[in-house]
Specification:
single chain, 150 residues, alpha/beta, Rossmann fold, 6-stranded mixed sheet, globular
Length: 150
């Protein structure tokens, strides 16, 4: 399985948290990353997006069908994200558009076995892969990139 974690782009401050919109810089970040992803995403990628406004706006830049997934809302656990993605049982690629600190914790958990706090920059993508080797499941990091490198 391939799991892509895409942190929402830069958003305005404010309350309620779920209604925060992308800033002008955030819209540019989302467009840059979306252009990159359009070239590299497998065609059958399942896209799951937090219900928060800033993640919805980030995902909209991709111009592909996505599913709003309440389990990956702000403050959810790494296990919520992995359950929504159907980690280890899914055969296709899954793209999650979500939030910190959860996405960093998902990356830490998959790479080390512990839900550590790893920082994922605004608008960045972490692309992970699960594979079987010698009867053991391994997670590899295929790519990490932030919009300022695009």
């Amino acid at each position: 399985m391939e799991l892509i974690l895409w942190r929402h782009a830069e958003a305005e401050d404010g309350v309620p948290d779920t209604e925060r919109a992308l800033t002008a810089k955030g819209r540019i970040q989302a467009e840059k990353m979306a252009a990159f992803l359009r070239v590299h995403l497998p065609p059958d990628t399942r896209i799951l997006v937090s219900p928060a406004r800033r993640t919805q706006q980030t995902a909209t830049a991709l111009n592909r069908h996505y599913i709003t997934e309440p389990r990956i809302k702000p403050g959810c656990s790494p296990q919520d994200v992995l359950q929504a993605a159907n980690w280890r049982d899914e055969t296709c690629c899954v793209l999650i558009v979500g939030h910190q600190p959860t996405l960093g914790s998902v990356a830490g958990l998959l790479m080390t076995g512990q839900a550590q706090y790893w920082s994922v920059k605004k608008g960045a993508v972490w692309w992970l892969n699960s594979r079987e080797r010698g009867g053991e499941t391994q997670t590899t990091l295929r790519l990490t990139i932030s919009p300022d490198f695009l």
